[in-house]
UniProtKB/TrEMBL annotation:
Keywords: Cell membrane, Membrane, Transmembrane, Transmembrane helix. Gene3D superfamilies: MFS general substrate transporter like domains. One of its GO terms (molecular function) is transmembrane transporter activity. This is MFS transporter. It is a multi-pass membrane protein. It is found in: Cell membrane. Pfam families: MFS_1. One of its GO terms (cellular component) is plasma membrane. It comes from the Bacteria. The chain crosses the membrane at residues 21-43, 55-73, 233-257, 263-284, 296-314, 320-338, 386-404.
Length: 422
């Protein structure tokens, strides 16, 4: 067993004032996102009278184009101070989202504007995630990264539990445009929180040419594919996330259509099991202390793949509802354990001067693969039926543990600078 000192488990696990502001900013923006969950499709349907193809484009095309737009931003972020980038991306999302209620008030809102805003928000989100990972690695020493990522994961699941019900009430009382305003304001508050972190952040050293070349756009992927520990994990997460997300629309069609579940039953089937993510994230650090990082990563990553195939056997009535909730609880609990360990492992395996490019490439691939698999499974749902397509996704997920790291990774070849603590 590893010692408490080695893992940085000091009493109370105080990570400092600067991390506290960063954590608060993350929680604020996450809550805003969940408050506005489903707002764009509702605006498209109720306000703009959009059809199914247009609504699908908001999530698939918007995310895919946003990912493409974000590709050159990874290398650009790498050699800039990360805190100003984080603030800028929050302000970009704030301004983009605020154009929707402004256009709605003027009677000028269009579907094209909704699509453009979804692209801008998706690109800014990828860039923010890349910069935040790099910023976190310079803000905290390596032994505190798991504690920090577990707190982020816990906050994410907490906002998942409380956000949609509050957002649903706001949607009913005030309409979807009001929840978009709340989401926009959350990004403004996040920017203020990140600004409050303060401290001095040195300008990263640019080791290459003065200007970014076309080949630099692929640096993140080159780094991932060259690392024997990151490479399998990269393919594992892209495939796992894509297949899980691709099944969700089909499950909605199955439950709300053929099986006759009401919208509130469908909502509670996924909201209530989110408590599993909160519990799992709180257990991640003790499990790593007891069994070691790689062991927890592999076991939790394998266990999360076992659950989704059961969704193909969902039936009507209370029994079917309980089956969905039980499967989702098990899946989300395993993800709650896996995600902070995986995020920490990825940061530890990435050199400090490569973090932004690597995380950007990772996010772009995940979003693009999710969009592609969602479109593919939509076609399979038409050809084979939603239940068969869901079962096929579940069977493929059973193979994803083969892409988890099997051996202990060798240390990074280059030394890393000491993180700053203020």
């Amino acid at each position: 067993m590893r010692s408490e000192h080695q893992l940085g488990h000091r009493p109370g696990h105080r990570l400092g004032r600067r991390f506290g502001w960063l954590w608060a900013a993350y929680g604020t923006s996450a809550l805003g996102t969940w408050l506005a969950f489903g707002a764009f499709p509702l605006i498209a349907i109720r306000v703009l009278h959009a059809g199914p193809a247009e609504v699908a484009a908001l999530s698939s095309v918007g995310a895919a184009v946003g990912a493409a737009v974000a590709v050159p931003l990874g290398p650009w972020v790498e050699f800039r101070r990360k805190r100003p980038v984080l603030i800028a991306m929050d302000l970009v999302r704030f301004a983009a989202l605020l154009t929707i209620p402004a256009a709605f008030a003027l009677g000028a809102l269009t579907f094209v504007q909704l699509l453009l805003v979804s692209v801008v928000v998706a690109a800014a989100d990828i860039t923010f995630r890349a910069a935040s990972g790099a910023y976190l690695k310079t803000l905290l020493p390596a032994e505190d990264l798991l504690v920090a990522n577990a707190r982020f994961e816990s906050t994410a699941w907490t906002t998942t539990i409380i956000g949609p019900p509050l957002g649903g009430a706001a949607l009913g009382l005030l309409g979807p445009v009001a929840t978009v305003v709340a989401d926009a304001v959350s990004y403004l508050l996040s920017a203020l929180g990140i600004r409050a972190t303060g401290g001095h952040e040195p300008l990263p050293e640019h080791r290459g040419a003065a200007r970014m070349r076309a080949g630099d756009l692929l640096d993140g992927w080159r780094y991932i594919l060259a690392d024997p520990a990151l490479r399998p994990l990269f393919f594992n997460t892209a495939l796992f996330n894509g297949l899980v997300m691709a099944s969700e629309p089909l499950l909605a069609v199955l439950m709300l259509g053929r099986l006759g579940f009401t919208p509130w039953q469908y909502g509670i089937a996924f909201a209530a099991p989110s408590i599993g993510g909160l519990l799992g994230s709180r257990l991640a650090r003790p499990l790593v202390t007891r069994f070691g990082q790689r062991q927890v990563l592999v076991v939790a990553g394998a266990l999360r793949a076992l659950w989704p195939v059961g969704l193909a056997f969902v039936g009507p009535g209370t029994g079917g509802l309980l089956l969905v909730m039980g499967i989702e609880l098990g899946l989300i609990f395993c993800c709650g354990v896996f995600n902070p360990v995986y995020a920490t492992y990825r940061l530890e395996r990435t050199a400090t001067d490569r973090v932004a490019r690597t995380l950007s490439a990772w996010s772009v691939t995940t979003k693009a693969s999710t969009a592609l698999l969602t479109a593919t499974w939509g076609v399979l749902g038409v050809l084979l039926g939603p239940r068969t397509a869901i079962g096929l996704a579940g069977l493929l997920l059973l193979a994803t543990p083969l892409l988890l790291p099997r051996r202990a990774a060798a240390p990074l070849a280059e030394p890393e600078p000491a993180p700053s603590r203020v």
